[in-house]
Amino acid sequence: MTRRTARSPRFDVTIVLTYYLPYTSGLTEVARTVAEGLAARGRRVAVVATRHDRNHPARETVNGVEVFRTPVLARVGRGTISPGFAPLAGRVARGSGAVQIHLPMLEAGLVARLAGATPVVCTHHDDVWLPESALAALQVPVVDASVGAALRRSSAVVVNNLDHAEHSRHFHLMRQRRLLAIAPPCREREPAPATFRETDGPHIGFLGRIAPEKGLHHLVDAFRRLTDPEARLMIAGDYSKVAGGSVVGALRERAGDDARIRFTGFLSEPQVAEFYSSLDAFALSSVAEESFGISQTEAMMMGVPSVASDAPGMRVPVSDTGFGRLFPTGDAAALADALREVVAYSPERRAEGMRAARARYGTESCVDAYDGLFQELRASRKVPV
């Protein structure tokens, strides 16, 4: 790509993150939903990411969004090494009304600096977390320093909720900027056939990355405390392309000879609705702080109560709606007790919980908030139309 083609477009907002489509994660889904939601409203939107999958082009238009990808030379844990990423993000950002940087990101501080006079919005999803290792001990301080540099250059900082933000290592920097709490976009799905249901027994599910921080070993241990032979545990999510590596092998070993436990792999969009429709409870057993937990909230919006770790951020949807139970992080016995309780919820309680979740969370309110913020910042920069 030439310097001229990188600089020539004029965008209302440039969104910068390490992984974009076809990668799937909660962070990626937030970026995609906001980008495509803004494009549907006529905004000119660019996304700059690394080209983690070589089968996808360096530049393409996806649902009205201009996507730029830079080559990846190597991977370190969950991160990528892409020398062209920050320079390209900076060039595209300088021709934009605002730039949104999704944190944590190794290159965040450099991107914020290279954006020049363009107002920076940092969306802080979480502090970087890696399993303990000598490499992690080196990576985490470097990423933290870069995140701090980006926050200092921000015109605004967006967090999913204050409960999570207040427990961040970077909160002292966030509170010095304009701080907004915008709940991530959660999709309202229509009821679908319960194609994943196998028996009349309780069906418990998880949907997300099969990664160490999700604490799925605690979920397997808790489920095995349930003695009902008709019960099922369904762990859904791609385990073949997880940044930093999947733990599916260790989970299969932990499940042992328990034939009631299923690993579904990646689910297509129609299958997600069918998966949620098959559940009596959703479990979010993460051991590292999550800023929200989109999958648990989307399950709640389909009438499925959630059992979640009582930790900053991920406890908010359950606390705000009362639709489910919280348990002490890492306590498999308490998780098993909470699951026994919520799978017995009545149809009336499930309908009430679904209404409460849908009233509080949704895609449009999130896109509205970001659209207003970006337009305000773009107007303050006076970028010509």
UniProtKB/TrEMBL annotation:
<dbReference type="Pfam" id="PF00534">
    <property type="entry name" value="Glycos_transf_1"/>
</dbReference>
<dbReference type="InterPro" id="IPR001296">
    <property type="entry name" value="Glyco_trans_1"/>
</dbReference>
<dbReference type="InterPro" id="IPR050194">
    <property type="entry name" value="Glycosyltransferase_grp1"/>
</dbReference>
<keyword id="KW-0328">Glycosyltransferase</keyword>
<dbReference type="Pfam" id="PF13579">
    <property type="entry name" value="Glyco_trans_4_4"/>
</dbReference>
<protein>
    <submittedName>
        <fullName>Glycosyltransferase involved in cell wall biosynthesis</fullName>
    </submittedName>
</protein>
<feature type="domain" description="Glycosyltransferase subfamily 4-like N-terminal">
    <location>
        <begin position="26"/>
        <end position="180"/>
    </location>
</feature>
<dbReference type="InterPro" id="IPR028098">
    <property type="entry name" value="Glyco_trans_4-like_N"/>
</dbReference>
<feature type="domain" description="Glycosyl transferase family 1">
    <location>
        <begin position="198"/>
        <end position="350"/>
    </location>
</feature>
<keyword id="KW-0808">Transferase</keyword>
